[in-house]
Structure formats: structure tokens, C-alpha cells
Amino acid sequence: MNIQQIASIAPSPRQLAWQKMEFYAFAHFGMNTFTGSEWGDGSAPASLFAPSDFDANQWVQCVKSAGMKGLILTCKHHDGFCLWPSQYTDYSVKNSPWKDGKGDVVQEVSQACKRHGIAFGVYLSPWDRHEATYGQGEAYNTFYKNQLRELASNYGDIFCFWFDGACGEGANGKKQVYDWEGYYSIIRQLQPNAVISVCGPDVRWCGNEAGVCRTSEWSVVPAALQDAERTAEKSQKEDDGKFSRKITSCDEDLGSRKAIDGCESLVWYPAEVDTSIRVGWFYHPEQDTELRSLEELKEIYYNSVGANACLLLNIPPDTRGRFAQPDVLRLQELGEYLGRTFSNNLAIHGTAWATDSLQGYCPCNVLSCEEHLFWQPTPGQEQAKLTLEFPQPISFSHVVLKEHLPSGQRIEAFRLLADGKEIFSGTVVGYQRICRFSPVTAQRITIDITESRFCPTLQQVCVYS
Ligand code: FUL
């Protein structure tokens, strides 16, 4: 592939819609909440599932207060306990004391999301330590697909199916070969707008659970990475050794020219950062004092949402079936910080000019939030400068750059200049790069794109104090 072809690889409409979600919640809730574990073995009786004061609205209001746009629920974790009354197993809420077995957590959460304009997503662990057919090949795949169909049919629009590659069966454990393609086709048929994440073709795991993506997070990467999680050592599918040994989702460089040199097949496969607000994924009261600080959460946000990835932040509901008070307060603080920092875009008071512009792609387009308007220089021009000029000096500490993703991801290196003086240098931009620095006062801000693929684009530039 030549550089023009590589520069033109673009997201699918569902990937683009997902990217704009930016920041959304994970809620790990289930049997583990009541047994105090992280990985249940599927033997805890359904009678233990007994939230005392369940309130899905409270979850969703907290999610909203942090500025998040979606929520993914662990409808079934590795222990196999289902938060909805699945007709394919008895191991579910229907045999719990909660609401006399008439409750449905998936329904309540999905409806609360809908009520508050929050997108709803599904986590359904392929690894199931309770189900007797697990390890029997087709029998389990049929069971799993039936569960997928229930979730995809009965709970409205789902923005994401999050497939986990984890499996701790060990050498002598049960071996189940998952029918991934069969799972995907059910989702494509029943929820065509949903992305399939991690062990799926649409969204890539960033490679760690620490809350950071790479300094240079490319969305265009070798196609083999789409199989990396499902063929990883921990997963059950035999690794045929063709690609997963050469490149893994944990490698530091997945997308630079050097990394993709000679690669025959490249795809748009953007990164998601997943991490928990607490030490564990599930709620444990002894961790009430070990929450991530506001400062840590800010760093995580800048190193994901501000660095060409989406952020999936886990907040585990407690045994009442509510977000615990420390988490509620922390989410609120984060939401207030983000609201304060990114509410007043100073760029709209400026004018824009560039060293070179293709006709119809005026520099002033970067001042508008219309997504179809963007600036680009003449095709083939890999370097270019765009300057914002203000009637008076302004003070600012954040500049947000966005590329026009339907054109591809192109910027490889850039500098920011304030009245001609360098204040920041960075590498990739992609969906969004949030540049942070000590406050400066200046009348001109120049984005000096020093390296790009074929020619750069900028869809929007925002400036915040
Ligand atoms: C992992 C699981 O094993 C954890 O329990 C958690 O659900 C995390 C998001 O994914 O693979």
C-alpha cells in the first residue's frame, strides 16, 4: 500500500459514532458483588444475589454527572450468573430473592439509560464457569448465541457488545472453541449499529488496564490485531502462530510508518482505554478509601480521550445496588472539572489562515463544529501551518485538535506556537488530541504540522483557558 492509500483508510459509520462517545461507564455488578470476589467459580447459589436498595436511575444520573455518554453492564461475568431472566439457564436473577425473582437488572439499567439519554452497552462473558455445556463445542456456542439473541432483541438499542478474552481454565481446564464469527453475525443482524469491542473487529483494547494509551495511538493498524485478543494465550482458541506472535495489542508501536512497513493489510481499529475507579472491577467495601483521586482521573482522561482513544471507566455498584457515595462524589468532581475546563471555546473569537489550502477547504472551517467542514492543504503536501489570530491577546492552557476522520488519520507530528514561540509538540492527533501546557497569553496560535501522511486535515481547533 502506498502512503496515499494508507492515509485514506477510514472508520466505518459505527466506528465513527462510537468514537464520538468519548467517555462512558462500565458497571461490574453481579454475583461477585455479594461474594466479595473478582472471579466467581459459578458455584455461589443464586439466593445470594440480593441488592437491598437497587436503583438504576442513581447509576445513570452519576454517569451523566461525570460527562459520560454511555454505560456498559456486565450482564454475565465469568461465574455465569445472569442479570436478566434468561430462558436458557436457571442461574439468574429469576432464582434470586431480589424482587421475588421477578426482577431484571438489564431491563432496569437499559431503561434508565434511555430515560436519561445515555447509550447502553452489553458485556457478556464468553467464559462461563457455571454452564454445564461449557467446553462441549457447539452445545455451548448455541447456548451463548441464544443468550446473545435475548440481549440483542429485548433491551432496545445497544451501542456496544464488549467481548472479553479472559479465561483462566488452565492446562487441565475445559476447552471451548468460541464461534466468534457466529456471535458477530447475530449482532450485525440484530444490532447493526453496535460496535463489537476487544475480542471483536470494531474497537481495540489498548493493551493495559492502567488507564493510558500510547503517546502515539494510531487507529490504522495491521489487520492481524483484530484477532489478537481472541487468539491470545489466555483465550481458548488455538493460536495458529501466523500473526499473534509477531504483533500484540501490548506492543508500544502499532501504527507508525516503521511499524506498518510491508504490512499488506491495514484496517481502522481504534483504541479503547478500560480501567476502574477502584482497585478491583467489582465492589468491595474495604476499597471505599482507595478510590482514584481526581488528579488521577484527570490524567487518565487526558491520556485517553485526549490522545485518540475512548475511555471506559468502571464504577462498581455496591450490595445495595447503587453507586457508593465516594464514587458518586468523585464522578461529580470530575464532571465539574471537565465542564469548567471545556465549556468556553475561545477559538470562535479568532480568524484562521494557512500556508496552503485546497480550494473549498478553507482554514476558517476549523473554527466551526460542523463535522463535514474541514481544512486541508493541497494533496501531497505533507507539511503545513495553520494560524488562529485573535483581535486581542488571549490567555489559554488547552488547545484541542481534531482531524477529519472520514478522510483518514494522517498527522504524524506537530508543534504549537504562541506568537511564534513553541509551547507544545506532539505526534498523532486522530479523533482528538488535547494539548495541555502552563497558561500562556498570545494573539496568534500556530499549528505547525511537520509530518503527515499524504496531506493533513483539521476538522476543528478549540482553545480553552
Ligand atoms: C477482564 C476480566 O477478567 C475482569 O474481571 C474484568 O471484567 C475486565 C474488564 O476484563 O478480562
Compile the SSE list and pairings.
Layout: H1 3-7, H2 13-19, E1 23-27, H3 31-35, H4 56-65, E2 70-76, H5 105-115, E3 119-124, H6 138-154, E4 160-163, H7 180-190, E5 195-198, E6 204-205, E7 220-222, H8 257-260, E8 266-268, E9 271-276, H9 294-302, E10 309-314, H10 325-341, E11 351-354, E12 384-402, E13 411-418, E14 421-426, E15 433-452, E16 460-464
Parallel strand pairs: 1-2, 1-10, 2-3, 3-4, 4-5, 6-9, 9-10
Antiparallel strand pairs: 7-8, 11-12, 12-15, 12-16, 13-14, 13-15
Helix pairs in contact: 4-5, 4-10, 6-7
Bound molecules: beta-L-fucopyranose.
What would you note in describing this structure?
The protein is an alpha/beta fold. Strands 5-4-3-2-1-10-9-6 form an 8-stranded parallel β-sheet, with helices on both faces. Strands 11, 12, 13, 14, 15 and 16 form a 6-stranded antiparallel β-sheet that branches. The chain has 2 domains: 3-341, TIM Barrel; 346-464, Sandwich (Jelly Rolls). It is globular. It starts with a helix and ends with a strand. The chain has 10 helices and 16 strands. The longest helix has 17 residues, at 138-154. The protein has helices spanning 3-7, 13-19, 31-35, 56-65, 105-115, 138-154, 180-190, 257-260, 294-302, 325-341, and strands at residues 23-27, 70-76, 119-124, 160-163, 195-198, 204-205, 220-222, 266-268, 271-276, 309-314, 351-354, 384-402, 411-418, 421-426, 433-452, 460-464. Beta-L-fucopyranose binds at residues 38, 164, 166, 274, 281.
